[in-house]
Design a protein that fits this description.
By secondary structure, the chain is α/β, with parallel strands linked by helices. Helices cover 40% and strands 15% of the residues. Strands 2-8-7-6-5-3-4 form a 7-stranded mixed β-sheet, sandwiched between helices. A 3-stranded antiparallel β-sheet has the order 9-10-12, covered by helices on one side. Strand 9 and strand 10 form a beta hairpin. Helix 2 crosses helix 10, helix 4 packs across helix 5 and helix 11 runs parallel beside helix 13.
Length: 352
């Protein structure tokens, strides 16, 4: 028998359904990048040497990110998706058996990686309205090496205030990792606090507002002294030439990103109002590109299956706290309209 860790054997695989005519389950952007951008990127790829390793510290991309974020370039670390940087933050701070705190319900990858690394997991439940329990988070931060927080939170869409983040970051012995994957849809960031609180890390991704989930690229904003240590915990040459070129191209076309974000925020409002108008549905106000909604007196599994039969894929959950809820990603207007129409028919049929 191959000698694998028991924790790996017992751990369920990290799987998310992928196929559907209308795919609204993974918080992806519904808009691909323009063809002219793709053409320009492919032309650049023809001019680079594919037999050479990519730069470990790509100067042009770091400079473009520094211009985009107004953060010191020395405090920026890029990774193979923000997932690699989540792992790097654990590897850089935690020894086996150390404590990591997460919120529940929250992004499933934080506890998933903590279990693989055999860390002690502390979970702080969100309040009934899905707001953050700062008092309990503070108490757990005093006993943890790392505290992971997403704002807006996935899957609830709820957010933290800057003063709340600063309050948590005042626990200097705990690394506070704030995941801002949905920053562009929220418009608020804690990055300026990193210079005052070196124990504060900010995570971002190109997968959401930039519409680049397929290239797997993320970045970290930190105090420069901390950034140069975190980079040691990630794999060398983990970001290839292609994602570097793609990200650089998009960062020099900020107007495209701004327009995409504007359309998604507008559609988020349309989707929220549409959900409110369906009897038995209660949407949770969101600052991200998705909306969690409560099915009052109805089975989430049943509604999920009925939608899937119509070619619409949304997100269902195994969390006990979310047993009667589903999450829908903001899609294009036609996708959102079809989803609302089919959901209304399903709910009407179940309530008949």
């Amino acid at each position: 028998m191959i000698n694998l860790k028991k924790v790996i054997i017992k751990l369920p695989p990290y799987e998310v359904p992928q196929e559907a005519l209308i795919k609204l389950n993974q918080n992806e952007s519904p808009y691909d990048i323009p063809e002219e951008c793709k053409k320009e990127i492919l032309e650049q790829m023809e001019r680079v040497s594919w037999n050479r390793y990519p730069p470990e510290d790509p100067t042009d991309l770091i400079k473009a990110l520094a211009d985009y974020t107004q953060h010191p370039p020395e405090g920026i670390v890029i990774g193979n998706g923000s997932n690699e940087l989540i792992l790097a933050s654990m590897l850089a701070t935690c020894n086996k058996g150390d404590s990591v705190t997460v919120v529940r319900p929250g992004f499933a990858l934080y506890p998933y990686l903590a279990k693989i690394l055999q860390l002690k997991l502390r979970e702080v439940r969100l309040r009934k309205d899905f707001s953050f329990n700062i008092g309990r988070l503070l108490r757990n931060a005093h006993q943890s090496k790392v505290l992971y927080l997403a704002t807006p939170n996935n899957p609830t869409g709820t957010t933290l205030e800057l003063e709340q983040i600063a309050n948590l970051a005042s626990v200097r012995q705990c690394m506070i990792v704030v995941d801002e994957a949905y920053y562009e849809f929220h418009g608020q960031t804690a990055q300026r606090l990193t210079l005052k609180y070196p124990n504060l890390l900010i995570l971002r991704t190109f997968s959401k507002a930039f519409g680049l989930a397929g290239i797997r690229l993320g970045y970290l904003l930190a105090h420069p002294d901390v950034a140069k240590q975190i980079v040691k915990a990630k794999l060398p040459f983990s970001v290839g030439t292609f994602p570097i070129l793609v990200a650089s191209c998009l960062l020099h076309r900020k107007n495209l990103i701004d327009e995409t974000v504007r359309m998604i925020i507008s559609e988020r409002t349309f989707l929220f109002e549409g959900l409110k108008n369906i009897p038995g549905i209660k949407p949770i106000p969101s600052r991200a590109n998705f909306i969690l909604f409560v099915l009052q007196g109805l089975s989430a599994d049943m509604v999920f299956r009925r939608l899937y039969e119509k070619g619409i894929l949304v997100r269902k959950f195994s969390h006990p706290e979310l047993k009667n809820m589903l999450r829908v990603t903001v899609g294009r207007h036609d996708e959102n309209s079809t989803f609302l129409a089919e959901l209304g028919k399903i709910i009407g049929g179940l309530n008949a």
